[in-house]
Amino acid sequence: MMNVWMCRECGFIYDPAVGDLDSNIKAGTAFEQVSAEWSCPVCYAEKTTFAVLLS
Ligand SMILES: [Zn+2]
Question: Residue 42 needs a FRET pair 20 to 30 A away by CA distance; which of 1, 4, 11, 25 works?
Fold first, then answer.
């Protein structure tokens, strides 16, 4: 089971079952596997701004 993560700035949810198609991150990609260069697609916060929402 992969963790769901949330942006602490804007509340955007990163769901690994969905990925982030706008950033070419395929469905099924765990947050841990997302590039450190990735940022929130809504508010552009750094990846480190995200916290685990569900596990
Ligand atoms: Zn955000």
Answer: 1
